[in-house]
Design brief:
By secondary structure, the chain is mainly alpha-helical. The protein is 62% helix and 3% strand. The longest helix has 14 residues. The protein is elongated.
Length: 507
């Protein structure tokens, strides 16, 4: 059998997935294996073949040697094409392919998510009469689970059972975890029960997976029950266990219980990690306790962790929901002092905070700061520039610029409105037809002496062919000259021509 997948022509660096040099790994290959692996990392296949030819006569190039090299290539994240090339070299030298060879090949392909090649390998294995073993099935199960495909993981586990190969704890736990990550608690619990019925002992990973599933589904009581079952089984809860439980409190917006749990754990020499604190911060933000979230932000630093941007954005979002300007500014100062670079989302939350309290001038200044910082406005920013937020825009942090302009019009604050429209002009922001009409209507409706009649809006003509608009009732006390002057000061880029009977607006 020849493995036809062509080898890569790119240069591969002799480093593993975390950037360490291969020589930093434990030496399990021997001198010949190290030499071959270094050459493979440089993609010098010709040199590897020469090395193997020279060493074949002394009996060192065995099937076990090839399997060790293939496994090392997978561990060091070398291309699956190189692993397949090694399998070709095995057959070329008269060494028969077996299930261990296929396990190495499958593991390498699936690590790269090359499903097509993996399926071809499986078909070739069955056609050759080679029977998959527990490791073979576990490779298929764990790969499906890691890529959040629980149905596929379940399929391979059932297939394993039908083949009369007894699954181990690893087999069951992978399937449990796959369903748990999607919050499908009932199915995760069913497989947990089947694992116990099969006589396999559940470990901390299995219990943590079910607790995590309960947390994702918001089942706080059930998560606590599984924690107690874990303790009763004689398995000591670890950091991940308690972080999963805190996730359950976060999803139920129970910041008080989450804080109490942290207090109990701290008294037991529990060492929290960054996930612990970020979960506590999110819990407080979800329950609307911005001040408490800021306190946890300080607690992170006391434990030697640096708050990441996600933590700051979480608090800023909570501020934008509540319109808490003081807390937002405080969080922003901490963010900047930590020398972190705010992203578009950070600016969006600041803009939304000020829009919620209808401080349009400050909101526009934050838009200007965002643009000066080189941050590109996204869909959330665009939503805030519209007259109204779309109802399905659930991530929008506050009311729109259009809503704030209407608030100024309602209050008759023309001075502030003029400053804001000038700022909008400098930012290249345009007003909608509806807003323009509202501004002109307000100007015309402003009481002034000397007017006894009012004109009507006959049409609005602009290059975009805006629809005609009819103005409704105006104030009986109207000074057209004053109104016109006010409109021109507020809308400097819009040409308004009018007489006693009609008003025409063009852009």
């Amino acid at each position: 059998m020849r493995f036809s997948k062509e080898h890569s022509t790119c240069t591969l660096q002799p480093r593993d997935k975390v950037g360490r040099k291969m020589d930093d790994k434990p030496d399990c290959l021997g001198e010949l294996g190290r030499q071959a692996l270094a050459l493979l990392a440089r993609n010098d296949l010709a040199a590897v073949e020469q090395l193997l030819d020279r060493s074949a006569s002394n009996g060192k190039v065995t099937k076990a040697f090839y399997h060790s090299i293939m496994h090392a290539c997978q561990q060091h994240s070398l291309s699956s094409k190189i692993v397949m090339w090694l399998a070709d070299q095995m057959e070329k030298r008269g060494l028969k392919i077996n299930v261990v060879t296929y396990n190495c090949l499958l593991g390498s392909c699936l690590k790269e998510m090359d499903i097509k090649s993996a399926q071809q390998l499986w078909d070739n294995m069955e056609a050759s009469g080679i029977v998959p073993n527990r490791i073979t099935y576990n490779i298929m199960i764990s790969t499906s689970a890691k890529h959040r495909e629980p149905k596929s993981a379940e399929h391979w586990l059932r297939r394993m059972i039908r083949a009369s190969i007894k699954p181990c704890t690893v087999s069951y736990t992978a399937v449990i975890d796959a369903f748990a990550k999607l919050g499908q608690t009932d199915i995760a619990e069913e497989w947990f029960a089947q694992m116990q019925e099969a006589g396999e002992v559940a470990d901390a990973v299995a219990f943590n997976s079910v607790i995590n599933s309960c947390a994702k589904a918001g089942l706080v009581d059930k998560a606590e029950e599984w924690l107690q079952r874990m303790i009763n089984a004689g398995i000591r809860p670890d950091k991940k266990t308690y972080n999963c439980l805190m996730q359950a409190y976060k999803n139920s917006k129970d910041s008080e219980t989450a804080g109490c749990l942290y207090g109990k754990l701290a008294s037991k020499s529990f060492r929290p990690d960054a996930i612990t604190f970020s979960t506590l911060i999110e819990t407080c933000c979800k329950s609307g306790k911005v001040g408490l979230a800021c306190c946890w932000l300080k607690e992170i630093e006391h434990h030697g962790f640096e708050p990441n941007l996600a933590c700051h954005n979480c608090i800023l979002q909570a501020c934008s929901v509540q319109g808490d300007v003081k807390a937002a500014m405080h969080c922003w100062s901490i963010l900047v002092s930590n020398e972190q670079s705010p992203n578009t989302l950070s600016y969006n939350h600041m803009i939304g905070t000020f829009l919620l309290v209808h401080d349009l001038r400050a909101a526009l200044q934050w838009i200007m700061r965002m643009l000066k910082a080189g941050k590109k406005p996204d869909s959330m920013t665009q939503a805030m520039l519209k007259d109204e937020y779309p109802r399905d825009c659930t991530k929008s942090p506050g009311p729109s610029i259009g809503a704030s302009i209407r608030k100024l019009l309602q209050a008759g604050d023309f001075n502030e409105l003029q400053v804001c429209t000038e700022t909008m002009q400098s930012l290249g922001l345009t007003l909608s037809e509806e807003l323009i009409e509202s501004i002109i209507h307000k100007c015309l409706s402003t009481p002034s002496s000397g007017a006894t009649s009012h004109p009507s809006f006959s049409n609005i003509s602009d290059p975009s062919d805006l629809a005609s608009k009819e103005m409704t009732e105006m104030s009986a006390h109207l000074d057209l000259a004053s109104a016109r002057s006010l409109v021109q000061s507020l809308l400097p880029n819009i040409h308004v021509s009018w007489n006693a009977d009609e008003i025409t607006v063009s852009f």
